[in-house]
Structures are given as C-alpha cells and as structure tokens.
Amino acid sequence: MIETQTLFSTGLSPASMEQAVLCLMTAFVLGSIIAFVYQKTYQGLSYSRSFVQSLILGAIVATILMLAIGDNLARGLGILGTMALVRFRTNVRDSRDMIFVFAALSIGIASGVRAFSIACVGTAVFALAALVVEWSPMGRTQRFDGMLRFWLPRDAGGAETIRAILGPHCRSFVLVAVRDVGKGDALEYAYQVKLKNQDTHDTLVDSLADIPGIGGLTLMLQDAHTEL
C-alpha cells in the first residue's frame, strides 16, 4: 500500500500509477469546476457546449503532458516542438473565453506537477473572482439598452410627440439616424434608448403604436442580439 505522504508528494520526478491517477482525477474535478463557473457567468443566449467540454478535457491534457515530461528536459523540448507543429485554427472570439482556457490549462499543469494545494486554491480563487466580477457593476451590462426604429409621415411633426413619449419610459435617448423612405414621403427614425426597467418596453411600444401614421415600429433590446 502506497503511503499517503508519497501519494501527495510534489515535484517533477516520475509519477507512480497511483499518483498519475490522482493527478488526472484532480484535473478532471477542478476543470469541471472551471467549466461550471463559465456556464454560470456566461452572458450570451447559449454557450458552446464543445467549448465547455474543452475546458475540462484541456485540463486533463495539460496534466498528461506534465506527467509525460516529468523532470526530463529533452522530453519537454521534444513535446514543445511537437505541439508547435500543430496549427490551432479555433478562433476564440471573446477574451474572457481565452482566460478560462488559460485557467483550465494552468490547473492541469499544477495537477500534473502534483502541486495539489496550488491547483485547489487557484481554482477556488479564480472561481470566486469570476463570480464576483460577473455579479458586480463591472460585469453587469446595460440590459435595457436598445435600438428603436420607426417611420412617420414627413408632415406628422412627430419629433415633439416622440420625445414626449420617450421621456417617461427612458432614462436617456439619442436620435442616431434619420433618413427618407417611401420616395421622400416619410422619415425613418433610429433612436438609441436606455429603458428605465424591464417592464417599460411593452408600454413604450404600445404608446408609440398609438401615434397616427407610424409604421415599421421595432424595438431591439441589447439582450436580444448578444453573441451566441
């Protein structure tokens, strides 16, 4: 029976079978925690399931590489050269996703060198920081921002009417574009609006729909077109 002190020993010396299994299981558990935090803090409509799985598997792969390298410098350089030949064409669109990838790989490396305390504490601190940043004002987007578009007959004199309606429903609004439509008989307006609360958009649309001659009324909220 292998001693507990030997099982949890750190370093780059060749690992026994029991130590290798412990390293891989640690990478799997901690990588799963990182993936779970990513799911909970993701702001889009739907996250990539393959990316979440890659976070877990990436931690395991990093552990395998560190176990294979051990304290052999030549082996490490050989593996580094082999990995350099692989061209990764996956485009990470969000810098936040890249940080989670590095976190998973770092946990895998720490597990591979049997620095279990560093891996566990690092995972806990990273997860806590990600949750705090997400739930703090730094992570909260203006969820009620949107783009309002509609057109009115040119002679409707709608500017004052529109401002009178937008005022009670919006914290702020800015006219960003005006253009001719319908052979110059009407004007299309585009407003960037910041609603006061989530329930305001229904009453705002209803109030605007009551304006005589209005058409093409659309209100696109920011949450409706966050990246998939």
Descriptive keywords:
alpha+beta; elongated; single chain; four-stranded antiparallel β-sheet; 228 residues; Alpha-Beta Plaits; disordered C terminus; 4 strands
Question: Please, could you describe this protein's structure?
Answer:
The relative contact order is 0.13. This protein folds into 2 domains: 4-135, no CATH class; 145-221, Alpha-Beta Plaits (2-Layer Sandwich). A 4-stranded antiparallel beta sheet has the order 2-3-1-4, with helices on one face. It has 8 helices and 4 strands. By secondary structure, it is α+β, with helices and mostly antiparallel strands.
Question: How many strand units?
Answer: 4
Strand order of the largest sheet: 2-3-1-4
Average pLDDT confidence is 79
Q: Tell me the β content.
A: 15-25%
Described by the principal axes of the CA atoms, the overall outline is: elongated
- Poorly predicted residue ranges: 224-228
Can you summarize the main beta sheet? 4 strands, antiparallel
Query: What percent of residues adopt helix (DSSP H or I)?
Result: 40-55%
Multimeric state: single chain
The succession of helices and strands, N to C, reads HHHHHHEHEEHE
Radius of gyration: 27 Å
Instruction: Output the structural class.
Output: alpha+beta
- How far apart the termini lie comes to 51 Å
Q: Figure out the total of helices.
A: 8
Number of domains: 2
Secondary-structure topology with pairs:
Blueprint: H1 4-7, H2 17-41, H3 49-69, H4 73-85, H5 95-112, H6 116-135, E1 145-153, H7 158-169, E2 170-181, E3 186-195, H8 200-209, E4 215-221
Antiparallel strand pairs: 1-3, 1-4, 2-3
Helix pairs in contact: 2-3, 2-5, 2-6, 3-4, 3-5, 5-6, 7-8
